[in-house]
Specification:
Elements (H helix, E strand, L loop, with lengths): L8 H10 L6 E10 L2 E10 L2 E6 L2 E7 L3 E8 L3 E8 L2 E9 L4 H16 L35 H11 L4 H33 L12 H52 L2 H5 L3 H43 L1 H8 L2 H38 L1 H6 L3 H37 L1 H16 L4 H21 L2 H19 L20 E8 L8 E8 L4 E6 L5 H8 L7 E6 L2 E2 L5 H5 L2 E5 L7 E2 H5 L8 H10 L3 H5 L8 E2 L8 H15 L3 E5 L7 H14 L4 E5 L11 E6 L2 E6 L1 H7 L2 H14 L1
Parallel strand pairs: 10-17, 10-18, 13-16, 16-17
Antiparallel strand pairs: 1-2, 2-3, 3-4, 5-6, 6-7, 8-9, 8-11, 11-12, 14-15, 18-19
Helix pairs in contact: 3-14, 4-5, 4-7, 4-13, 5-7, 7-8, 7-13, 7-14, 8-12, 9-11, 9-14, 12-13, 18-20, 20-21, 22-23
Length: 737
């Protein structure tokens, strides 16, 4: 999120005149309300003062040494940014709520850091922007795309670059369409000959239509039928090649997009909903395919037809050609105005439809929670309300479009009425033949066809540009966690050295601070602490799902940034509290981390995890289909399969995140026995709220508010009577109660 706007020249001069030599601008944000007027002012934050600037005037200076308790306040339609200056609450500026409120909320934290910790290093924020910096309109949901300001030429250029290797196949339909266009002009010319020479009454008796005239007439009919068949054959060839090229392009695009999604960092994926990502892979790539397969060839044919028909009409009669152009300026102006309305309404309909889709996906993902709380009627009502809003917008659009487009069609065909009048007048005078009039009318119809077609393309092009931008946004995103140029593949022994690491999902709000831990190969380290103390964040950093902000994590003497992510994670096994099983068989889930495992290996892993007996009691044993996410099994059964999955992986580093939480005593014992087998000769990091499960740990790491509070053996920590001692005593008291 942008926190440092550029000052206009006039405001920059006013700032330079007032600022000291030792001051540096750290943040600069707009404010847009001053008194009872809308303005374009700026709040400039330095390491010494806050400056309020408007139109080249310095309105106020607030020294930071006298400022405390920064806050924002949301009022009716506007927001205020406040601070205590010399002990008195002072309004620093007002701004319209929505666009800049998140920025000022971050500045509140930044000012606290600056005034309390005297840290003048500017903080950053990775939260994506929600509004377009050019026009101020909101971006398309879950993207940084503004449909009004996007560089359309850039989208087409990127699309062209992606067609490399498929261009010959994609251009073949255009070559075929050239012949189709040519023959579409031959037919009216042949029909004109047929009318003038063979159909127009000549006064001859019917019986006399023999010989040369009848032969010529038959040739004309055969030619028209042959051309029609040939055109249809060309249409089939064009459609087939378009379909092949479009599907190949979509296959390449979907594969690239999915590969890119797999390479993105966990943080990037979690910022978007599952429904949004699925929509980009499926719906948006289909929109692009439709544009390539259908829209582009049609656009080419319509453009070529228009140009050729125009040239032919100029040759036949320049005046008639002028009649054709009479409605074009009016039509172009009307289409431009309609385009603006259509685009605005289509974007609105698209956003409402997308919201309904996301709502449906969210409800279905949480269907167990819905059922457990008996909230079916509420969710039906929510979905119905969202669907009705989307449906009403679509209905409104359809009514408007169905009214506008017939009117545009009438405007476009104004010229044909003039041609009909002028052409018939020329026929009466004997200057045109009936065949020529028919030919002119046909060519005029060919010209009007593209004009009518143009009135329908705003919707398609708008959808294509939006979908393409969403796809390219993913393809061009840089992963937050990347391998170095030549990463190292090492065989991990299990020594972990965590050196003074600091990390926060937002840089100004660290979750872990100055954490240092040394772990020897084969040791089991228990990680304990209150909720939110940073336990899960620590293991995420060891797996390099995120990169540390400061410090380093070293495995076997090698910084994990230098180890390839594939090599690192292929030697780490994970058993989580919330076990996820894929739809498929029990066998496939156990062998997930080792796809080519033998039956003997799978069964051995299951036996080690104390899972073999219950698996054999299933209807089809190891071939039993697991329901989606494994909900057809109990929590303990899913957990034991997850342990078997980790065992067959044979990791050098094992991570257990609440692996026995929320289980009954008997099941916990089975799982604990399985874990005891699993942790042998492996470096293990185990998070547990039930401290009894860590009785076999070599050492215990106690985290408190992101910092290492205690580190030692169970007996050492009990003797210290610190946080760990209090946790143990509290759990023993609960167990006795």
């Amino acid at each position: 999120m942008k926190l440092l706007y550029e000052l206009p020249d006039a405001d920059k001069k006013a700032y330079d005149a007032a600022a000291g030599a030792d001051e540096k601008i750290m943040y600069c944000l707009p404010f847009n309300i001053y008194g009872d007027k809308f303005v374009n002012g700026y709040m400039t934050f330095t390491n010494k003062r806050i400056y309020k600037l408007l139109d080249g005037n310095l309105l106020a200076i607030f020294p930071l040494e006298n400022a405390t308790e920064f806050r924002t306040e949301v009022m009716y339609g506007i927001c205020g940014f406040y601070a205590k200056i010399d002990g008195a609450t002072t309004l620093l500026c007002n701004f319209i709520s929505g666009r800049h409120l998140p920025r000022y909320a971050i500045i509140v934290k930044a000012m606290e850091i600056l005034t309390e910790k005297h840290n003048d290093t500017p903080i950053t924020n990775d939260t994506p922007e929600r509004f377009c910096p050019k026009c101020g309109r909101p971006f398309v949901y879950s993207t940084t795309i503004c449909p009004y300001c996007m560089d359309k030429f850039e989208v087409y250029k990127k699309l062209w670059a992606m067609t490399k290797g498929l261009r010959l196949m994609m251009f073949f339909p255009f070559i075929v369409s050239i012949f189709s266009v040519i023959f579409s002009f031959v037919v009216p010319w042949i029909q004109a000959i047929a009318i003038d020479k063979y159909i127009k009454p000549t006064g001859e008796a019917v019986g006399s239509l023999t010989g040369t005239r009848m032969t010529g007439f038959i040739v004309i009919i055969v030619a028209i039928v042959s051309i029609d068949l040939f055109q249809r054959a060309l249409g089939v060839i064009q459609a087939r090649f378009s379909a092949i090229a479009g599907n190949k392009f979509t296959l390449v695009l979907k594969t690239l997009l999915y590969e890119k999604l797999q390479s993105l960092s966990l943080a990037s994926i979690q910022r978007r909903s599952t429904g949004d990502l699925m929509g980009r892979v499926n719906h948006d790539t289909s929109e692009m395919q439709n544009f390539i397969t259908n829209m582009l060839p049609s656009l080419f044919i319509q453009a070529a037809s228009f140009i050729v028909a125009l040239i032919v009409l100029l040759i036949i009669s320049p005046l008639v050609c002028a009649f054709v152009f009479v409605p074009i300026p009016i039509t172009v102006f009307a289409v431009k105005k309609v385009w603006e309305v259509v685009q605005r309404r289509n974007v609105k309909a698209w956003i409402l439809g997308t919201r309904t889709g996301y709502l449906l996906q969210d409800i279905l993902n949480g269907i167990r929670v819905v059922k457990c709380f008996g909230m079916e009627e509420r969710e039906i009502s929510r979905f119905k309300e969202s669907s009705v809003i989307s449906s009403n917008q679509n209905e409104s659009n359809a009514k408007l479009f169905d009214t506008i487009f017939p009117l545009l069609g009438f405007l476009i065909h104004l010229g044909s009425f003039l041609i009909a009048y002028y052409g018939n007048l020329m026929v009466f005078r004997g200057e045109f033949g009936l065949g020529t009039l028919s030919q002119i009318s046909s060519y005029a119809g060919i010209i009007y066809g593209p004009l009518m077609w143009i009135t329908h393309i705003p919707n398609s092009i708008s959808a294509f540009l939006t979908s393409s931008s969403k796809v390219f946004e993913i393809l061009e995103e840089n992963p937050e966690v990347e391998d170095i140029g030549l990463p190292i593949d090492i065989a991990i022994e299990g020594e972990i050295d965590i050196k003074n690491i600091t990390f926060g999902y937002q840089s100004y709000n660290p979750v872990l601070e100055n954490v240092t831990v040394d772990i020897k190969p084969g040791e089991m380290i228990g990680i304990v602490g209150h909720s939110g103390s940073g336990k899960t964040t620590l293991i995420n950093l060891v797996m390099r799902l995120y990169d540390v902000d400061e410090g380093s994590i070293v495995i076997d003497g090698v910084n994990i940034r230098d180890i390839s992510q594939t090599a690192l994670r292929s030697q780490i096994g994970v058993v989580l509290q919330e076990t996820f099983l894929f739809s498929g068989t029990v066998r496939e889930n156990i062998a997930y981390s080792k796809p080519y495992a033998t039956d003997e290996e799978i069964i051995l892993a299951a036996r080690t995890a104390n899972a073999h007996d219950f698996i054999m009691s299933l209807p089809q044993g190891y071939n039993t289909i697991v329901g989606e996410k494994g909900y057809s099994m109990s929590g303990g059964e899913r957990q034991r399969i997850a342990i078997a999955r980790a065992i067959i992986h044979n990791p050098r580093i094992l991570i257990l995140d609440e692996a026995t939480a929320s289980l009954d005593t008997e099941t916990e014992k089975l799982i604990q026995d399985a874990l005891n087998k699993l942790v042998r000769n492996r470096t293990t990091l185990a998070i547990a709220h039930r401290l009894s499960t860590l009785r076999n740990a070599d050492r215990l790491l106690v985290l408190d508010r992101g910092k290492v509070s205690e580190y030692g053996t169970h007996s050492e920590l009990l003797a210290n009577k610190g946080i760990y001692y209090k946790l143990v005593m509290a759990q023993r008291k609960m167990a006795r109660g």
